[in-house]
Design a protein that fits this description.
Number of strands: 11
Shape: elongated
CATH architecture of the largest domain: Ribbon
Distance between the termini: 72 Å
Largest sheet: 7 strands, antiparallel
CATH superfamily of the largest domain: Umud Fragment, subunit A
Strand order of the largest sheet: 1-2-11-3-4-9-10
Strand content: 25-35%
Length: 187
């Protein structure tokens, strides 16, 4: 038999591919493509959001299937009562922006924002925000004393004194809440 036996040729081909080294940029490129694909799936339907607001710990938050309830973090569009303030502050009314805040009171809770402090079920929770923000713009104020109805939630962040929350625009309706969020990573 002249030539090489088939096993030798196959072995040589195997050695040829076994010795090929992958270029590091190819590996990085493939990893970046996979990361972008995963991110597009997660961020496309707002499964993951990035919070940059100081009123809630900045970080990444995941969508949860849990219903809104006291103690949970919720995302919702800026309420109509807050849009004039947002327009004066940013030049845009923010109708397509989302706010992320913790729920502090829900259906059946008695809330009172008529004094210097917001109270929930008779307990002081947070001071009412100042009359103006740091730039001197008047902050809206929600002043009421009542029991929250079905599907109403009070959202308040006490991390900053002038947090734009229910103390400014009142309760948020369950139908206006886009999602309950769970912090994944904060910084």
């Amino acid at each position: 038999m002249i030539g090489r036996p088939p096993e030798a040729g196959a072995s040589r081909r195997g050695r040829r591919f076994a010795g090929v080294r992958h270029h590091p940029l190819l590996t990085v490129g493939l990893a970046a493509t996979a990361a972008l694909a995963a991110a597009s799936v997660l961020f496309a339907d707002r499964q993951v959001v990035v919070n940059t607001s100081p009123s809630v710990a900045p970080g990444l938050c995941l969508r949860s299937s849990d219903p809104p309830a006291v103690g949970r973090l919720v995302g919702f569009r800026i309420p109509a009562a807050a849009r004039p303030y947002v327009l004066g502050r940013t030049g845009r009314d923010g109708h397509d922006w989302y706010i992320l805040k913790p729920v502090v009171a829900g259906p059946g809770d008695r809330v009172d924002s008529t004094g210097a402090w917001l109270t929930v079920n008779g307990r002081p929770l947070a001071p009412m925000p100042p009359a103006a923000d740091a730039a001197g713009r008047p902050l809206p104020a929600w002043r009421a004393a009542r029991v929250l109805g079905a599907g109403e939630f009070l959202v308040v962040s006490s991390r900053i004194a002038n947090s734009l929350d229910s103390r400014c625009y009142g309760p948020v309706a369950a139908g206006d809440i886009a999602a309950v969020r769970v912090p994944l990573v904060t910084w």
